[in-house]
Amino acid sequence: MTVTIPPPEPFDFALAMIMASATPLLMLDGNLVILAGSKSFCGAFQIDPAAVNGNPMA
């Protein structure tokens, strides 16, 4: 019997890419609200990673 593992949800995959990136990156929603920020983004801009999510860009 072969077990097929479904691919991760697109959001989960994108979030994993953001979190693993050495490049400063943000994930934004359609209203330009920050959903996630990479550790390198937070370090580059001296932002507390716990305070990034939910903030608007505009």
Task: Explain what you see.
This protein has one domain. Helix content is 29%, strand content 12%. It contains 2 helices and 2 strands; from the N terminus they run αββα. A two-stranded antiparallel sheet has the order 1-2. The longest helix has 11 residues, at 10-20. It starts with 9 loop residues before the first helix and ends in a 14-residue tail after the last helix.
Terminal Cα separation, in Å?
Answer: 52 Å
Instruction: Summarize the main sheet.
Output: 2 strands, antiparallel
Please give the count of helices.
Answer: 2
- In total, how many beta strands? 2
Write the layout of secondary structure elements.
Blueprint: H1 10-20, E1 26-28, E2 34-37, H2 39-44
Antiparallel strand pairs: 1-2
Q: What keywords describe this structure?
A:
2 helices, about 60 residues, alpha+beta, two-stranded antiparallel ribbon, about 10% strand, single chain
Quick take:
With about 60 residues, the chain is an alpha+beta fold. Helices cover about 30% and strands about 10% of the residues.
